[in-house]
Amino acid sequence: MRGYTHLAFALAAASSIQVLTHKDVLSLPVMVAGISALLPDIDHTDSLLGRKIKPISWLINKLLGHRTITHSLDFAIGLCVIILLTSKFSYWAWMFALGYITHLLLDSLTRTGIKLSMLRQNSTIGFKLVKTGGVVDTAIFIVCLLILSFL
């Protein structure tokens, strides 16, 4: 999926939660969800986040490659648990987890998929339904924008 799709999906999900819980849509927790949805692609220098912090992105890419540790489910769960525990399960930490996990959820729909575990070879899973930048990717982006426009 494209960065814009990840961002729109996380913002739509977080904003929907805000509306359902009678909280302000334009808030720090929603921004946290949006930023964390871009975080897994920090290992790609041409990603939305990677372009903003190119030297860091380049270094991570050279050390780890793209779609390795940052796209593995075990790393995501570990990172989210650490953030939740250190923040004493704060609301913004849950929004961080929401953004990061939605990124992996969307990427699991792509032809490349995601890794279940960095500890096991050949643990990639994916539904191979979506071509990054293709029609379905664009459709998901548009639907998320429509949802956001009604919130």
UniProtKB/TrEMBL annotation:
Segments passing through the bilayer: 129-150
UniProt keyword Transmembrane present: yes
Keywords (A to Z) from UniProt: Hydrolase, Membrane, Transmembrane, Transmembrane helix
Domain of life: Bacteria
Pfam families referenced in this protein's UniProt entry, alphabetically: YdjM
Molecular function via GO: hydrolase activity
PANTHER family reported in the protein's UniProt record: INNER MEMBRANE PROTEIN YBCI-RELATED (PTHR35531)
Protein name as it appears in the record: Membrane-bound metal-dependent hydrolase
Lineage: Bacteria, Bacillati, Bacillota, Bacillota incertae sedis, Caldicellulosiruptorales
